[in-house]
Amino acid sequence: EDAEKGGYEHFMLKEIHETPRVIEDTLSEYLDDEITIDASFAFGVSEIVFVACGTSYHACLIGKYFIEKLADISAKVEYASEFIYHQPPTGRTLVISITQSGETADTLEAMRIAKKRGAKVLTITNVLGSTATRIADFVLYTRAGPEISVAATKSFIAQLVVLYLITLKLSHIPRSEKVELLKELRLLPEVVKRILDSKEEIERISKLLAKYENLIYIGREVGGPVALEGALKMKEVSYIHAEGYPAGELKHGPFALLGEKTPVVASLVRDHTYEIMLNNIKEVKARDSIVVVVADEEDKEVEKYADFVIRVPKTNPIFSAVTHSVALQLLAYYTARERGCEIDKPRNLAKSVTVE
Ligand code: G6P
């Protein structure tokens, strides 16, 4: 097993470090000079319903933002386990299931039900020939390679890459904008490498966070699901109770938990959400919580309010879902390591949940 870890202490860390290659491989599958995805799954579609579980569910939440923002198609996201209790999709619904393993029982069941109700089903999966690929009408593959660590890392980023490609394929934004975004997408492997190379600050912050039993993660717009995924990663591997919220929800309950015992991790993106997020960060600080902010490297303002800043390279805001998530994966990993947790196989969790 040690040989398979390629010199890394855990599979989770090895797999996070594979992310640049995974992005390259996934891009080369579906991107030449142009995006090569066959978009026939979208013909006649009036709405998209995403279904998934766990980390893949968070990829769906992020996908909804991309699709609505850039492709102008209305999208919903359902937990696969809840989908069965909701209104039937119509024949003009495209159901997109996202599943790393292609074997998650709830996701497979949601796909079967969607088909029975007349929807078209596209699956985004990492495993060739998995059950999901046999149920789906259309299949797109992430090229993450085998993922051993129970906590999903590189496969999540690969899912986001496929979602970027689908969105750009379906979007009607001006060609020059599309070209610009594709250019940045091709640069993502390099961008992620830079985050991996500058992990000292993350390690240092982890040593502090490891002492706490409660953490709150916040973000806005695409930062909201990034916060949810950051919190999920933290609780999975470090056993710290971590909750993610869209920042606007803090006042509606979580504020009661703020204080010296509850650090807050914020995802701060340089877009139209910036000012209001900064305000939320100030409000958190005023209530004595330690604040850790993931922010871009050119942001000077944030230092005035944050106790710690995790710097990531500046990108178009939509790619912050990747940069911030990689930083938060590392934060979860190092915090768990500091706490001496069984990182690759957390208690009570399975890599693939094949029962409903
Ligand atoms: C399990 C794993 C998670 C994963 C979820 C969905 O709970 O521990 O890491 O996100 O299943 O898995 P899938 O293979 O459908 O993406």
TrEMBL record:
One CC-aspect GO term: cytoplasm
GO biological process, one term: UDP-N-acetylglucosamine metabolic process
Segments crossing the lipid bilayer: none
Enzyme class: transferase
Active site location: 351 (for fru-6p isomerization activity)
Record keywords: Aminotransferase, Cytoplasm, Glutamine amidotransferase, Repeat, Transferase
Keyword Repeat carried by entry: yes
Main location: cytoplasm
One Gene Ontology molecular-function label: carbohydrate derivative binding
Catalytic activity: D-fructose 6-phosphate + L-glutamine = D-glucosamine 6-phosphate + L-glutamate
All copies of domain SIS, residue ranges: 37-176, 205-346
Top-level taxon of origin: Archaea
EC number: 2.6.1.16
UniProt key word Cytoplasm: yes
Coiled-coil features, chain-numbered ranges: none
Subcellular location as annotated: Cytoplasm
Quaternary context: Homodimer.
Task performed by this protein: Catalyzes the first step in hexosamine metabolism, converting fructose-6P into glucosamine-6P using glutamine as a nitrogen source.
Protein name as catalogued: Glutamine--fructose-6-phosphate aminotransferase [isomerizing]
Classification of source organism: Archaea, Methanobacteriati, Methanobacteriota, Archaeoglobi, Archaeoglobales
